[in-house]
């Protein structure tokens, strides 16, 4: 009698929703359960989550995915977790109740704390730059603003964690308080070289070490689940973008992926030595499998990608649905000399000019809404080019292909534009759920469900591939025009600052 098929359960805890997905040995999606959760904005710049609700949702979604697949706990080989990064939870060790709403990663209430930090110290230790984005100042803010919390933290009566820590603590019935190296590398508290909490950073941020989780690899058995899927090993945790890197099987130095959604997150595997960026990128941990050497990564974020399409739809009313942007852009052969720099909240990597503002340049009476649509898609392409150029310069590695995922990859014209401006193939995988797949892969490796990295590569199947088709002279000329448009976005802000017209 053959034994029943076994599966890996991935929990993808994201910014706006949580998903539970079951994968089989061929990396095929067997069942999916998803639920959105609200974000609250109690004051300008504040972004909060209800961490207790997210845990309740997770329990419900696990049960729904299991019912959908028609399986029991004995058929789940392991659980892997991918999570929104930097979002901060502090909870009571004894009761498990959060002491305050979770502070979301986009929250900017800690700007004064971040600006007081020494960029040289933070950069040298963590590969990051002081910013409200990361967890450290969020923890510091809670300790400063909740009466008695700092004293309790020093005694270890309250615990800090990112969403992976929160879920693992609850899944194990409060037995395990830990995080993995990818999430720890986004707190602004971990030394990239030692992979340990850094005493000088804790001192600068006035955070007691007693409240911190232990740091583990991304793929190992952390403990067993208790009330939910009792006895099933919890065997992986990764920040969502690192999980996508792993799910895309970017295992060699120089391999890169970009996730295109509201914005774009581009990560390049740089190997076992951290590469310190001098071109406006972040240095981070890519993943660590058990006791193997760490794979480091460079990361560049594009602030506005899909949200530019949303603006064209909702703000300008040029299209009725996001998918119509491709059809409209296809009505013209080129952009007609029009370029859009979507610096709605400044320019992100590699420029980091928060004062810059969005511009449309090259407008003439010849320009139609088709040309504008084309310029919208090209804006994502050229922003990707800027980040890739910075990565190539920092790493000394030349990108040979870009692996892509996310909602915008359904736009075939955009994929061709990216291939053209990068002059490398763009590859979209068959399994679109690369974040969840990365968590599943890491968990499966930890328990022997998959044998090695080659086993994972064998599961990869290509759904689409776009080859560059633009002449080199045209590519160079178009890029120069884009760079002048970026200069205009910065110039516009400086003119505005002086009240000139």
TrEMBL record:
Regulation: Inhibited by fructose 1,6-bisphosphate (FBP).
GO biological process: glycerol catabolic process; glycerol-3-phosphate metabolic process
Domain Carbohydrate kinase FGGY N-terminal as annotated: residue spans: 7-247
Pfam entry (one): FGGY_N
Binding site for glycerol: 85-86, 133, 240-241
EC number: 2.7.1.30
Sites where the protein binds sn-glycerol 3-phosphate: 15, 85-86, 133, 240
Residue sites binding ADP per the record: 15, 19, 262, 306, 407
Record GO terms (molecular function): ATP binding; glycerol kinase activity
Pathway note: Polyol metabolism; glycerol degradation via glycerol kinase pathway; sn-glycerol 3-phosphate from glycerol: step 1/1
Database matches in InterPro entries: ATPase_NBD, Carb_kinase_FGGY, Carb_kinase_FGGY_CS, FGGY_C, FGGY_N, Glycerol_kin
Keywords: ATP-binding, Glycerol metabolism, Kinase, Nucleotide-binding, Transferase
Annotated Gene Ontology cellular component terms: cytosol
Catalysed reactions listed for this entry: glycerol + ATP = sn-glycerol 3-phosphate + ADP + H(+)
PROSITE patterns: FGGY_KINASES_1 (PS00933), FGGY_KINASES_2 (PS00445)
Residues of the Carbohydrate kinase FGGY C-terminal domain: 256-446
Binding site for ATP: 15-17, 262, 306, 310, 407
Assigned protein family: Belongs to the FGGY kinase family.
Functional summary from the UniProt entry: Key enzyme in the regulation of glycerol uptake and metabolism. Catalyzes the phosphorylation of glycerol to yield sn-glycerol 3-phosphate.
Protein known as: Glycerol kinase
Organism: Paractinoplanes toevensis
